[in-house]
Automatic annotation (TrEMBL):
Keywords: Cytoplasm, GTP-binding, Hydrolase, Magnesium, Metal-binding, Nucleotide-binding
Name the record gives this protein: GTPase HflX
Top-rank taxon, per record: Bacteria
InterPro entries membership: EFG_III/V, G_HFLX_dom, GTP-bd, GTP-bd_M, GTPase_HflX, GTPase_HflX_N, GTPase_HflX_N_sf, P-loop_NTPase
Signal peptide: none
Source organism (scientific name): Fluctibacter corallii
Transmembrane segments: none
Function of the protein: GTPase that associates with the 50S ribosomal subunit and may have a role during protein synthesis or ribosome biogenesis.
PANTHER family: GTP-BINDING PROTEIN 6-RELATED, GTP-BINDING PROTEIN HFLX
Similarity-based family: Belongs to the TRAFAC class OBG-HflX-like GTPase superfamily. HflX GTPase family.
């Protein structure tokens, strides 16, 4: 048995290269994560393996090297750039005599530091509890096992069951509170839909410049810094677009490679702002050599939260760091803006962004008159629930003539939900 050590400020970093691309992580990104957590990296150890070792994740020889580095550098914590199993984490802690964190635990720690709102703190606590619930197995000396009488359990097992029950109870309480927050957010979204106010959601890899762009557009003074996950809590602001009117711009948490599933689940209410958006502004740091991989990672998370089919406008940010690149709008064959090149830091190209937003939102709305027969009352009811009916009247044959105006994304979602081609009901003028 051993004492569960506290994580400190001096860290030994461990990075393993695997031949499988799906297991690869970026060492430089780990160093940025560690710096964002306020931890000083005193040593970095790298190695290569075909597959993780079942006991230590790394080989036994490399594990001894890590333990020696901890003693030599007087480190307080070992941080792996990978996800460790609970048994691997415990085995490494026994060997190194210090706290061991994996990539998931590090990201959770950063989120815990950055949460500011009540909702954000609840979401982080939920993710942390789900994570540590798998790591309660004999990690502390006070959970010593003692044989009881016939039919009795030792106090160690009793303590473990108590800890698990307390965690389950706390998770249920947090979920109830987050459910109330989700209902409040849903009411806000319904109000915006009733007022036909489109929603724009900033998405992108962490540290791509979303918050800087958000501040430049809205003058919101949201915290922005050159570090990972500088923004955690979502912020909504109203902006005015020519020929469109008011729109809501949402700044959301940045994505990252292999974003922990517990975080995706915990931030479901926050990410719903992205799910319900009419247009996604995908901010990309085009000065980053790995911008293509970052784009793919963001799209993977968007697919995971069912937001992959929402229209995107690519924001090619940080052109001030690139030679010979000027602000411009790239368009597809139909003339629709698909990319805007700008610098949020210097404010270059912001006027082009507003032009692109106006054009995209004008095309993202559908306005039709539908002829709905009496037997399709379910369709009429679905339209009323979307608050998209501007007027309604009866035709001579008893059909409903319904004038609707809604975002194209809602039109397609409704078709999928009721498994009907709405174009069949459109009145041809």
């Amino acid at each position: 048995m051993f004492d569960r050590y506290e994580a400190g400020e001096q860290a030994v970093l461990v990075h393993v290269d695997f031949p499988d691309d799906t297991s690869k992580e970026d060492l430089q990104e780990l160093q940025m994560l560690v710096s964002s957590a306020g931890v000083n990296a005193v040593d970095v150890l790298t190695t290569s393996r075909q597959a993780p070792h079942p006991k230590y994740f790394v080989g036994s020889g490399k594990a001894e090297e890590i333990a020696n580095a901890v003693r030599a550098c007087e480190a307080d914590v070992v941080i792996f750039n990978h996800s460790l199993s609970p048994s691997q984490e415990r085995n490494l802690e026994q060997l190194c005599k210090c706290r061991v964190l994996d990539r998931t635990g590090l990201i959770l720690d950063i989120f815990a530091q950055r949460a500011r709102t009540h909702e954000g703190k609840l979401q982080v606590e939920l993710a942390q509890l789900r994570h540590i619930s798998t790591r309660l197995i004999r990690g502390w000396t006070h959970l010593e096992r003692q044989k009881g009488g016939i039919g009795l359990r030792g106090p160690g097992e009793t303590q473990l069951e108590t800890d698990r029950r307390l965690i389950r109870g706390r998770i249920k309480a947090i979920l109830r509170r987050l459910e109330r927050v989700a209902k409040q957010r849903e009411q806000g979204r319904r109000s915006r839909k009733r007022a036909e106010i489109p929603t724009l959601s900033l998405v992108g890899y962490t540290n791509a410049g979303k918050s800087t762009l958000f501040n430049t557009i809205t003058d919101a003074h949201v915290y922005a810094a050159d570090q990972l996950f500088a923004t955690l809590d979502p912020t909504l602001r109203k902006i005015q677009l020519q020929d469109v009117g008011p729109a809501i711009l949402a700044d959301t948490v940045g994505f990252i490679r292999h974003l922990p599933h517990d975080l995706v689940a915990a931030f479901k209410a926050t990410l719903q702002e992205t799910q319900e958006a009419d247009l996604l502004l995908h901010v990309v740091d085009y000065s980053d050599e790995q911008y293509r991989e970052n784009i793919d990672q963001v799209n993977e998370v968007l697919d995971e939260i069912d937001a992959g089919e929402i229209q995107q406008l690519m924001i090619c940010n940080k052109i001030d760091r690139m030679e010979g690149v000027e602000p411009r709008i790239d368009r597809d064959d139909e003339g629709t803006p698909i990319r805007v090149w700008l610098s949020a830091q210097e404010g270059k190209g912001i006027d082009l962004l507003f032009i692109a937003l106006t054009e995209c939102l004008a095309k993202s709305m559908v306005q039709h008159t539908l002829r709905i027969p009496p037997q399709q009352g379910k369709l009429r009811g679905a339209l009323f629930r979307l608050n998209c009916i501007s007027s309604e009247r009866y035709a001579e044959d008893g059909d409903w003539l319904v004038d609707v105006r809604m975002p194209t994304s809602d039109w397609h979602r409704l078709e999928k939900r009721i498994d009907t081609n709405l174009s069949d009901y459109v009145v041809k003028h």
